[in-house]
């Protein structure tokens, strides 16, 4: 049995796939197998993968129909492998050669740790570095915390940081202990955007977390990546709310603590509602506000105030446009 099972879920990332696979094969730590899962790609992904398919520790699983969720692919890959640790190496990202050599010892030496991850940089579709580090991803929570290595209690990490912001923004930066992943029932397959966030939280309710401040992962953001579209959409905002709803009780989060978060989330949803390109239906509205009312207190008051403010701004804008045309 290999120490690490590397799982590459892929959908239409042919242009990035060779670099991704090569960055895994070039790891200084070599006790791993690699499973490629293609989710019915329509590009040349499988032709690219075929260049590597001759190695005995590499295998492929091909879907005839798209699964509809990246997290179904995560679970499928985990079921098909046996490694003690799991690396979900997303197909458009790139790893530094010492990624596994750095994270594997964090799990080996700390059996209470269920999840270890490293700092990332952000690159674009041409491998140009956009952000040299993703520390600013969590700067609203702490200015300095992610500047150094640490091991943290999982419950405390969730309660103080992770519930409010997914500060583990890229699965490719994470190494997971299989036993804990299986204990939580795997990733949440009903989600499209926030399934990784929900997974991290559930893992850390059962185990601790280790972080390496070394930048060993390149997180690629481009026009077709899930991360570039996630929380700008109605599905993304709704799933964000669903994370809070499901975990506020296990994490003993008070309504007072959620107060600022509540207003920000409701305002984001109302902004989306008034965006003509968002296509938020009445059914979407009812679904969101029913969940919000179960998650937060005094939802109606904020909603009414924000709707009134939007209508006022819209009316003023219409009057100004009418006045300019009449002048």
Question: Layout of helices and strands, plus pairs?
Answer:
Layout (H helix, E strand, L loop, with lengths): L3 E7 L3 H12 L6 E7 L6 H6 L7 E5 L7 H10 L5 E4 L5 E2 L3 H10 L4 E11 L5 E3 L18 E3 L1 H9 L11 E4 H6 L11 H10 L3 E13 L5 H4 L4 H14 L11 H15 L8 H14 L3 H28 L1
Parallel strand pairs: 1-2, 1-4, 2-3, 6-10
Antiparallel strand pairs: 4-9, 5-10, 6-7, 6-9, 8-10
Helix pairs in contact: 5-7, 9-10, 9-11, 10-12
What does this 3D model show about the protein?
The chain has 327 residues and is of the alpha/beta class. Helix content is 42%, strand content 18%. It has helices at 14-25, 45-50, 70-79, 99-108, 154-162, 178-183, 195-204, 226-229, 234-247, 259-273, 282-295, 299-326; strands spanning 4-10, 32-38, 58-62, 85-88, 94-95, 113-123, 129-131, 150-152, 174-177, 208-220. Strands 1, 2, 3, 4, 5, 6, 7, 8, 9 and 10 form a 10-stranded mixed beta sheet that branches. The longest helix has 28 residues, at 299-326. The protein is globular.
Please give a handful of descriptors for the protein shown.
ten-stranded mixed beta sheet, alpha/beta, 12 helices, globular, 327 residues
Give a quick rundown of the structure.
The protein has helices at residues 14-25, 45-50, 70-79, 99-108, 154-162, 178-183, 195-204, 226-229, 234-247, 259-273, 282-295, 299-326, and strands at 4-10, 32-38, 58-62, 85-88, 94-95, 113-123, 129-131, 150-152, 174-177, 208-220.
What class do helices, strands and sheet pairing give?
alpha/beta
Helix percent reads: 40-55%
C-alpha Rg (nearest Å):
22 Å
Write the H/E string, N to C.
Answer: EHEHEHEEHEEEHEHHEHHHHH
- Which blocks of ≥5 consecutive residues have pLDDT under 50? none
Shape: globular
Query: What share of the residues does DSSP label as strand, in percent?
Result: 15-25%
Q: How many helical stretches?
A: 12
Report the major sheet: 10 strands, mixed
Give average pLDDT, whole number: 89
- By DSSP, the count of extended strands is 10
